[in-house]
Specification:
Thrombin, subunit H; six-stranded antiparallel β-barrel; alpha+beta; about 15% helix; about 475 residues
Length: about 475
């Protein structure tokens, strides 16, 4: 696995990589046609310049360019229609207005029928409406860029979330040599009464911190609590009426959709906005503080100082908290899904200590490869299995005295569901557990040697270092 470092909020040297746009092609002037040999020369009239008559823009061009509606289509667009012979005048006396109107209506119907035939013959009526996409459209000697919605979505999202993104300046002491330290990171206000979500590594080992808003206001802050499951922390400032960022649903995001990162890269460029896509979901990385699972991978530019800032979707809703970047690659950053953060955010607002549920097992998420390798009866679920810790010591699959031990879970059991929620690759056990509070009794469905068991388990509180 490639080494992954958290986004340490210390500025580093940076490089620029300018690109030079290519010039647009210049339309060529059509060559003149020479007279055919043997043809008599005809005395020409006074020379005049020629240029093709301008064509009326099509409907999608008018929508894109903002031009006024075109006039009646040119004659070339119509199908020739036989002339209509007007009926003989009536013998009775009176006005001919009715006859004239009827004739005009008949001619209009026949002409419109010809237009329909032409459009139908071209296949235009059989094609679905074209979606706007990245690129250009080429007409007669014209290359016109197409305006896409992503740009306006990025602008709107930045305006919507930007005021709630803060810069966090910290001062502390290095626990190794007792020297003074300082750092800069980011955060996002999720409640107007001064509640801020950020990364744990942004505020770890700090003696004081200052929260700076986009509008220039500054507040001293304090760490309310840290998350024992992920690299998250909650900071509180004494203020009310603060701007907040709307929260999205990270459980429904799709690979390839727009992703926007906002923060203070290098600790200097506050409220910087970068855009990319969601590259993948369900990623796991190893950091200096341990393994973090179920992350969102994005290629939106994330740099030191972006830590704790929001990852936003096209609607301007927060879907993640930026936490780390691959130091030996470009365009590989990671964010903690906002759905994982929501439980501790709710606990903070309620004035409760931050706590995560814990059952006390070590496990592997089963996939087809693991099923075949170990000859397992199921292709999905969580296999209770021991392993080695960071020091290389062997560890049991079930922690002694843990809630799982008390409920009767055994090594090599397969946890198939919790409270009826299936455990699989898209819904791993630790992600499902975050939906429940410590102290709640849940039903674990277990497959043991091919037999299904239901065990009642009371969730414990996850220790800082489980």
């Amino acid at each position: 696995m490639n080494p992954i470092d958290p986004l340490n909020p210390h500025p580093d040297a940076w490089r620029s990589d300018p690109t030079i746009p290519e010039s647009a092609p210049v339309p060529e002037t059509p060559a003149e046609t020479a007279p055919t040999a043997g043809q008599p020369l005809v005395e020409a009239a006074a020379p005049v310049s020629y240029s093709p008559a301008p064509e009326a823009p099509s409907e999608w061009q008018r929508q894109t360019w903002g031009a006024p509606p075109a006039s009646t289509p040119e004659a070339w667009f119509e199908v020739p229609v036989a002339p209509v012979t007007p009926p003989p005048p009536p013998r009775r006396r009176g006005s001919g207005v009715g006859v004239i109107i009827a004739t005009a209506v008949l001619a209009a119907v026949l002409a419109s029928g010809g237009t329909y035939v032409a459009i139908r013959a071209s296949g235009a009526l059989d094609r679905p409406a074209a979606a706007i996409s990245v690129g250009t459209t080429t007409g007669t000697n014209v290359t016109q860029p197409i305006t896409i919605d992503e740009q306006s979505a990025t602008i709107s999202a930045a305006a919507k979330v930007g005021p709630a993104v803060v810069r966090i300046v910290t001062a502390g002491t290095d626990p190794n040599d007792a020297t003074a330290t300082s750092g800069i990171g980011s955060g996002v206000i999720f409640d107007s009464n001064g509640w801020i979500l950020t990364n744990h590594h942004v505020v770890a080992d700090t003696n004081s911190l200052t929260v700076q808003l986009k509008d220039g206001r500054q507040f001293p802050g304090k760490i309310y609590g840290i998350d024992t499951l992920t690299d998250l922390a909650v900071v509180k400032v004494d203020a009310t009426g603060l701007p907040t960022a709307p929260l999205g649903d990270s459980g429904v995001i799709k690979v390839g959709e727009l992703a926007i990162a906002i923060g203070s890269p290098l600790g200097t460029y506050s409220n910087s906005v970068t855009a990319g896509i969601v590259s993948a979901t369900g990623r796991s990385i190893d950091t200096d503080t341990g393994t973090i699972n179920n992350l969102i991978q994005t290629d939106a530019a994330i740099n030191p100082g972006n830590s704790g800032g929001p990852l936003v979707d096209a609607l301007g809703d927060v879907i993640g908290i930026n936490t780390a970047v691959a130091t030996n690659a470009q365009g590989i950053g990671f964010s903690i899904p906002i759905d994982i953060a929501k439980p501790i955010m709710q606990q903070a607002i309620a004035g409760q200590p931050l706590a995560r549920p814990w059952i006390g097992i070590r496990y592997e998420t089963i996939d087809l490869q693991l099923k075949q390798q170990l000859n397992l009866p199921l292709a999905q679920g969580a296999l209770v299995n021991g392993g080695t810790d960071a020091s290389g010591a062997n560890q049991p699959g079930v922690v002694a005295g843990s809630p799982a031990d008390k409920a009767g879970v055994k090594n090599n059991d397969i946890v198939t569901s919790i409270e009826g929620i299936a455990i699989d690759g898209e819904h791993p056990l630790d992600a499902v557990l975050t939906q429940f509070a410590p102290g709640r009794t849940v039903t674990l469905a277990i497959n043991r040697a091919g037999k299904t068991l239901d065990l009642q388990l009371t969730l414990g509180t996850r220790p800082t270092n489980p």
